[in-house]
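> example.struct
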């Protein structure tokens, strides 16, 4: 049987899925290519040196894919996978990729030492895996229509992800305040926050989509999927660093305050509120253009 908090989570997910299904049926990303795409904000600023490095690695990967398609051997594919790993690291080091979400969650909850790495790896695999799902869904579509469908589908998935995060972070924030007033901590909030961050990974990675589309055009989609897996492992490194930044910062302050129980409780509550507030503000800013576009 689910606990009360567990039932609330399941109910919320069901409502969001049903709402998304209703909107997709009315204005689906599988519709005509002439339909107006939903709006979505993009992270900023963009660091030019990271973009330049990514472009260099991406171009080299494209050359190697072409060489592998010409039958130049397994060593070429091994180099493709190595560059995909590097590309993933560079790609996730820039804006986006849920680093703000990961930081806020591990600032707000207790965690064991391996959890930031485990969550970052799971999030990155979901991020790349959703791109694989979309390319498999639309792989029989050709030409510019493929790009339009992939782009619109990705925008819908991203938009609903941030809508969910905004609603869920509000619930977590209010739950934290309510339980603090009652003088006890909701043990389910930690699991709920991890649940929310993993669901945020359903937004497909644009870089992964680029690799998959290119490999599809060369009839090497299976190699493209393997490259996206290596890319996901690379993306997990910068994302986990964001989690460890919050984890070790919070742990260090906890160690300093462990002799002062009252101060420790105040700091714990403040950290929890700060984490959930960051998550709420970030989610609202990212979800707003999408919500406004589908309502207009």
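> example.seq
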């Amino acid at each position: 049987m689910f606990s009360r908090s567990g039932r609330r989570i399941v109910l919320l997910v069901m409502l969001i899925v049903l709402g998304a299904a209703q909107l997709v049926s009315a204005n689906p990303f599988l519709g005509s290519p002439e339909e107006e795409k939903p709006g979505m904000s993009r992270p900023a600023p963009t660091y030019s040196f990271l973009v330049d490095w990514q472009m260099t690695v991406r171009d080299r990967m494209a050359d190697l894919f072409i060489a592998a398609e010409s039958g130049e051997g397994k060593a070429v594919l091994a180099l493709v996978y190595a560059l995909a790993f590097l590309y993933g690291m560079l790609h996730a080091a820039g804006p986006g990729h849920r680093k703000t979400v990961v930081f806020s969650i591990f600032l707000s909850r207790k965690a064991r030492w391996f959890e930031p790495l485990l969550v970052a790896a799971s999030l990155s695999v979901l991020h790349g895996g959703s791109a694989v799902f979309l390319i498999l869904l639309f792989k029989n579509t050709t030409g510019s229509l493929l790009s339009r469908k992939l782009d619109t589908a990705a925008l819908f998935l991203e938009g609903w992800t941030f809508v969910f995060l905004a609603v869920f972070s509000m619930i977590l924030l209010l739950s934290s305040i309510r339980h603090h007033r009652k003088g006890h901590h909701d043990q389910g909030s930690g699991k709920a926050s991890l649940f929310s961050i993993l669901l945020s990974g359903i937004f497909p990675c644009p870089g992964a989509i680029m690799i998959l589309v290119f490999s599809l055009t060369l009839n090497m989609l299976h190699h493209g999927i393997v490259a996206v897996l290596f890319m996901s492992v690379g993306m997990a490194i910068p994302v986990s660093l964001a989690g460890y930044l919050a984890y070790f910062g919070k742990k260090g302050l906890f160690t300093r305050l462990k002799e002062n129980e009252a101060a420790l409780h105040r700091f714990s509550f403040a950290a929890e509120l700060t984490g959930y507030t960051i998550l709420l503000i970030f989610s609202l800013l990212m979800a707003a253009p999408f919500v406004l576009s589908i309502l207009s």
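> remarks
Residues 212 and 225 are 7 Å apart (CA to CA).
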